[in-house]
Amino acid sequence: MAAALGGAILLAVGVRRPHPVSIEVPYRVQGNLVQIDTHAPTLGYLKLDTATLQPVLKPEPVAGRVAVAETRAEPVVAPLAGRVDTVTVRLGQHVNPGDRILSVRSAAAVDLLHEIEVLQASEAVRAKTVERLEALVRLRAAAEKDLLAAKLKLEEVRLARQAAELKLRSRPMVVSPDGAYWLLAPRDGVVVERNVLVGEEVGPERPQPLLVIADLSEVIVAADVPEHRATWLRAGGAAEVRSVAAPGRVWNGEVEYVSEVVDPVRRMVNVRVRVPNPDHLLRPNAFVQVTFDPGEGQVVVVPASAVVTDDQRAFVFVAKSTDPPTFVRRDVIIGRQNETSVEIRSGLSPGETFVARGANLLSNTIDLAE
Questions:
Q1: How far apart are CA 156 and CA 115, in angstroms?
Q2: Which residues 6+ apart lie within 8 Å of 94 measured at CB?
Q3: Which fold has domain 27-57+297-369?
């Protein structure tokens, strides 16, 4: 009875329902425009600045690896087939021109020496024959054709002897009568490759050199540059090289080559820098840091926090008016950048006011409105 009476009273009086609350949004979005109320807290998060021309940014260093300059390296190969008897040098050892670096015991060397002796003797005999026929032709006691044939045979023997001797002179070496020959260092330098063992069979058909000797007074530094940063690099540009092995030391080099192909796996561009290395402190295969000279000139530079990027574009927010505060999102083309600053190559002019801090907040506001 009491429950029924209570229900009747509630029906008679009615239940009050709360009225919807109207929340006023402190900003308005129209396309790329964002207008913010003058007293909105959002303004406290924004920092404005004026675009000015500044020197082009010095790019961040990239990793590089020291390599031998191919033009200053010379391979050592075996001109005659045989078995390696002795190797007197180690990897990284300095050698002088003419030093004995490797010996090969070779039956081919004995055969070659014998062949040269036979050809020399044959050449001497045929030279005498030509001399005799020339005298007979002058006396009209022999035919001209016999003299011509003798001269041709003499020339054949001479060419064969020169070819055999060329095999001995093709590489700096010393051949001994017992069938061994020593290979000599072809130049002053350092052994940067050693691909041979004692007892190994070697010969002229071997595709890989036995040793490589290089002059390290100039080296190549191969740098891996991110694709978007390689755009500004050109052959002939300057570069600085630093190594943890020599703190405080800077080597000045020159960009020799910028690859036109991007590595499909690492998305890097290979850049070669030629670097003088008179004291040999830059050793092959060592890792170094390379900083490329941006060159002269001025460009608009803004804080990194002023630029908002996605997969396809980059943009900044430019102040359109101050009453009420209104900002327009504008596409820009960026250039070099580092951890704190970004070059604006197009889209923002000197003297324009832009949002230096809080650009992401305005970008999110537009995204939510969409």
A1: 14
A2: 189, 190, 191
A3: 2.40.420
